[in-house]
Amino acid sequence: MNLPGDFINEMNDFFSRQTDVPSEGFYESFDKEPLKGIRFSRSKIKNEDEEHRLLEDLGEDPVRVPWCSGGYYTKNESSGKEALYHAGVYYPQEPSAMLPAQIMAARPGEIVLDLCAAPGGKACRLGEDMHGEGILVANEISFERSKALLRNIERSGISGLVILNETPENIADKLLLFFDKILIDAPCSGEGMFRRDSGAVKSYMNYGPKVCVPLQESILEAAHKCLKDGGSIVYSTCTFCIGEDEGQIASFISRHPEYHVKAHPEISGVTHAGEGSVLPGSMRIWPHLSDGDGHFCVHLIKGEEKELRSAEDMIFRDEDRRRDKNTEAALSVLGEVLSDKGREGLLKGRFVSHGTGLFKMTFDEKIFRGLKVVKTGLYVGDIKPLKSGKTVFEPSNSIALALDREAVKDDSYLALSRGDERLLKYLRGETISITSDDGLKSSGMILTGIGDYPLGFAKINGNTAKNMYPKAWRLI
User: Fold this and answer.
1) Class of 5-302 in CATH
2) Domain(s) of CATH 3.10.450: residues in the chain
3) Is CATH 2.30.130.60 correct for 409-476?
4) What is the pLDDT of residues 413-422, one digit of tens each?
5) Residues carrying an active site annotation
6) Per-residue pLDDT reduced to its tens digit, 53-71
7) Total H helices, total E strands in the chain
8) Beta carbons of 52 and 255 less than 8 angstroms apart
């Protein structure tokens, strides 16, 4: 690979100073094939045996990414036609990018911010770890990129979240000292992506460290303003540049001496900076020393580390018994397919109407008033008017993907195998056939899935089922 001269000079200087990191093989690593990976959903997969079974179905070997629970290396690109992907069972992710959310270790009851969240892989992991018991804020400053963020989060089925399209500064102004944990996967010069992205070198030439360093600094300052005392920041980049990594954090700590680096136990494949380094306790993944692209990660604590679960006092714990007619209509329709467990889960929180849309909220959305909100809560569906003057409720696919198999009645769930031709037809939006062997009710709404993993709704009419899979999500 033809690497930029400035980058080569920068790295030669780095290796001459940091003698604990060998340079041998570094430049040659950029000519190797980039590694691929997938991360299984913590909210949809129960155990390692299930992961291994699914890997076998996908034609992959169970080779773990050592720094991420649920992360595996894969030989093949994830196909856009793979039903398990559409069901949110796994997320395709570059192996090194799995480290920051693992280090953050979000927990139920916390208020967590992913400040630069698109396309959503890290936000999804954070939400899975929180189990819907907390408040997750996923922000993306680019409106176009926030659309991809929304789609990936909807696919994951996580709840208890809000998606923002805001600047870090506006979030800090509105939500001062609000968050328990903040993840910053900072925009950077992208040197670690040179072998993966053909446009990364050109981007580096146009938007190198001189552009990125001041931007990262402003993002860190905004995060500081909205982080509670005792809270933590996980800062990561996919660059090798000290000025954007160790130097950036050392400068931040010099401005805010209440912060300190939290060192983590040794992780296989991750280089941990020791005493005498630029930033002891920080972590790197080197492409010539590990199975992953270049990555930097550091865990910062503001003051004395505390167990903060600030969302616990903000979460709606009881069923809102003041349900309006829109809510009753939704419960009536969804009651066709939900088991007792599914209905009980749906009733946790409150239902809020926005226009024709109905959303399930686990917290008061007024908290985020004054910010540009893309989505709050779990999108349940739409109340649509009929010519007769009555209304009908149409469930969203978001609610389908938030359900698990046990939440659905046996006679209302169509489990399709990978070899069933109806599976691909369903993802294409086509009408599918129903037989007596499927063991379904004779009419009404059902949930369709690949095995035990829901994909979306359909309506039985005789020996066929009308497809309700959203047009925007269908395979072409």
Assistant:
1) alpha beta
2) 316-408
3) yes
4) 999 999 999 9
5) 238
6) 999 999 999 999 999 999 9
7) 14, 22
8) no
